[in-house]
Design brief:
The complex is a heterodimer of chains A (284) and B (361).
Chain A lengths: L11 H30 L3 H6 L12 H9 L2 H32 L5 H12 L7 H10 L6 H5 L6 H13 L2 H9 L4 H12 L1 H16 L3 H6 L8 H9 L9 H21 L1 H13 L1
Chain B lengths: L1 H9 L7 H34 L20 H7 L4 H36 L3 H16 L2 H11 L5 H8 L14 H8 L8 H4 L1 E2 L2 E2 H4 L5 H28 L2 H9 L4 H12 L1 H15 L4 H7 L10 H11 L3 H25 L5 H11 L1
Helix pairs in contact in B: 1-2, 2-17, 3-4, 3-17, 4-11, 4-14, 5-11, 6-15, 11-14, 12-13, 14-17, 16-17
Classes of the chains: A mainly alpha (284), B mainly alpha (361).
Chain lengths: 284, 361
């Protein structure tokens, strides 16, 4: 399967050394910006403007974080992002699984049509939906409410697709046994099938949480009041200098650092799963 | 829906096992249908109406005092030649350069990273994979904030450049096109020339050839930085599926590493190249978050993209019809590019070509 050391007779060692040297150089380029980000968030404004590359603050200060948490709306933004991301994730896992199961296993008229429409929906680029979504949210009197923020994100066609693929890989015999024993469709789904679908559900959790936590454009068009501002929207306004005068990089970078932590934690917990997910995406 | 269910029930004993299943089927998919219908299908129809109407943002676009104006909004953006046309043309130019640079570069870089990582021993592989993938995890907002800092006039990038004796530009405030700068170095200046007399969409040919501005170039680097990790994972998965047999056969035939890579490995990765280029094209035509967070189209409209312009026209300038029209044009562009790319990379006689390579080498 994987080629660990290919049987190259000549220059194999030199080749390996060169590969590693190149990779380490590239890895530094990829990681260094994030280290500078964290380091600068602990610097003073003046120092951040003068020394942009040092990884150790000359005078270590948590001033940026204090200002964020004590004198700005940052805590509100954080709570909003968390509420929306959790609600969207829970909703998507459940509804995507339900629909995926129905499309994979239950026979009903119109199933193929629904599936074809899901595929069509997946190809609609999100960015062209900004104005359309705003119009409907406004029409439904959901503008500037949690409902308007969460409901439109509550299902995603790609998630249904992933769940459907997974359910098709489970042997039919298991649920047939349950059905013969007299369990209803939902009962079979809930207590036999769903527990087996954990790997696929973890995939949906990762994608949904990351997607809704990092979502910006939908919240721009669905809300306007400060109480409903999410991290993405709030930090974007910070970036364009609406809260701070001058450059004030430490506070901006501190804001960006904290908003990265939840998705970074999720990433490190489920790393193996994420890598496998993308491999699966190719094999299908 | 309940009548449909009872009809099914009435259809007789043979289907008795199936009918509760059919009801459950519809019940299970109904949340998805309702949400997608309500927030995707109906919105598109409503927006299509707005694109053909003179709605100004007040009240409901469905109220009786909103009039049908035919293709007026599309004409204002595409053919009238006024400010809306010029702005749209500029946005289109910016995004076209963005696509032209980001898509090939991110595809090549991610293929390169995957090949390198795939050649390492199992032990180090996890670390490198994580390092290259991590930027993809962060939000576009957070990464844009970081980029504004790294590419500020006294930022890290210019510091590194100054070590190398290069005086870095004031990236996000520099509207000069890099192709114009390059041509300027060899003494070519088309200002006022023939190319400057004529043009398309209110933008002269000379301006079309400006290349991405330095500000846009910083965003191009950012796009490559954040997406190469994701695509690297796709290529890595593909590389691990390639059997060693073909590689070894080519080696015996005397092909060197470079030939083996381009003529044996890459052709086998074709489905993944297709996926990466398609996703790249779709993503690159939708640049919005970075512009909203970072530049709002400045400097000199050189980071304006159709996606951001659509938002700005509707939500800021209250030209809802034009905003909706731009969104639909963008939709058509994305579909067209996807189809074009599908056609270009379509599976032509694949097997004979591989045989030919074998014979030649």
């Amino acid at each position: 399967m994987a080629t660990t050391v290919s049987p190259r007779p000549r220059g194999a060692v030199a080749w390996q050394v060169a590969t590693y040297a190149g990779l380490i150089g590239l890895a530094v380029i990829y990681i260094y910006p994030f280290l500078v980000q964290v380091a600068t968030s602990f610097k003073s404004d003046a120092e951040a403007a003068v020394s942009a590359t040092s990884l150790l603050p000359a005078t270590f200060t948590t001033g940026a974080y204090e200002r964020l948490f004590l004198f700005s709306d940052y805590p509100t933004w954080f709570v909003n992002s968390a509420v929306v991301a959790v609600a969207v994730t829970v909703g998507r896992v459940f509804f995507d699984a339900l629909a995926g199961y129905a499309l994979a296993r239950l026979e009903f008229r119109g199933r193929n049509l629904i599936f074809a429409m899901l595929i069509a929906v997946m190809s609609v680029p999100a960015v062209v939906l900004l104005i359309p979504k705003f119009l409907v949210i406004k029409q439904l009197s959901m503008y500037d409410t949690y409902a308007g923020m969460v409901l439109p994100l509550l299902v995603d066609a790609a998630g249904v697709f992933i769940m459907k693929n997974f359910f098709e890989s489970i042997p039919r015999s298991l649920e047939e046994q349950a059905r013969i024993d007299g369990a209803g469709v939902f009962r079979t789904f809930w207590s036999i099938i769903l527990p087996m679908a954990k790997p696929a559900m973890v995939t949906i959790i990762i994608l949904s949480f990351q997607g809704s936590w990092n979502e910006l454009s939908h919240f721009i068009i669905a809300t306007q009041s400060p109480e409903l501002t999410t991290l993405t929207k709030g930090v974007a306004s910070l970036a364009s200098g609406q809260l701070s005068q001058g450059t004030q990089y430490p506070i901006k970078l501190a804001a960006a650092t904290i908003m990265t932590i939840p998705v970074a934690v999720l990433f490190f917990i489920f790393q193996k799963q994420i890598m496998r997910t993308s491999e699966g995406a190719i094999k299908e | 829906m309940s009548t449909g269910v009872s009809e099914n029930v009435a259809q007789g004993a043979r289907r008795r096992m199936k009918s509760p299943e059919a009801a459950a089927g519809w019940l299970f998919v109904s949340p998805v249908i309702v949400v997608l219908g309500l927030f995707l299908f109906i919105p598109v129809l409503m927006s299509l109406w707005v694109a053909f109407s003179d709605w100004g943002g007040r009240g409901s676009p469905l109220s009786s005092d909103v009039a049908f104006v035919g293709f007026d909004n599309f004409a204002a953006v595409l053919t009238h030649g006024g400010l809306p046309t010029k702005t749209f043309g500029t946005a289109l130019r910016n995004n076209a350069w963005y696509v032209a640079l980001v898509v090939p570069l991110q595809t090549l870089l991610s293929l390169f990273l995957a090949t390198m990582v795939n050649n390492t021993l199992k032990r180090g592989r996890g670390f490198f994979r994580t390092a290259f993938y991590f930027p993809s995890v962060t939000s576009s907002v957070a990464i844009t904030v970081l980029w504004l800092f790294l590419f500020s006039s006294t930022g890290a990038v210019n510091s590194v450049l100054s070590y190398l004796g290069i005086n870095g530009p004031n990236w996000f405030n520099d509207p000069r096109g890099i192709l114009h700068l390059g041509l300027g170095l060899v003494g070519v200046d088309g200002t006022g020339g023939t190319l400057d007399q004529h043009g398309a969409l209110g933008v002269t040919w000379w301006e079309w050839l400006a290349g991405p501005s330095i500000a846009m170039f910083a965003l191009i680097i950012m796009a490559i930085f954040t997406t190469s990790g994701t695509f690297m994972l796709l290529f890595l998965a593909g590389l691990q599926n390639i059997s060693e047999g073909t590689e070894e056969a080519a080696m015996i035939d005397g092909a060197n590493a470079w030939q083996r890579f381009w003529r044996v490995t890459v052709p086998q990765l074709k489905p993944i190249v297709f996926t990466v280029v398609t996703l790249g094209l779709i993503g690159c035509w939708q640049v919005f978050d970075q512009i909203y967070t970072g530049t709002k189209g400045a400097p000199g409209n050189t980071t304006l993209t159709p996606a951001y312009l659509s938002y700005e026209a509707a939500f800021i300038s209250q030209s809802w019809g034009q905003g909706a029209a731009i969104a639909f044009i963008l939709f058509v562009i994305i579909i067209a590019f996807t189809l074009l790319q599908r056609w270009v990379l379509a599976d032509k006689p694949d097997v004979p070509r591989r045989r030919r390579v074998r014979r030649r080498t």
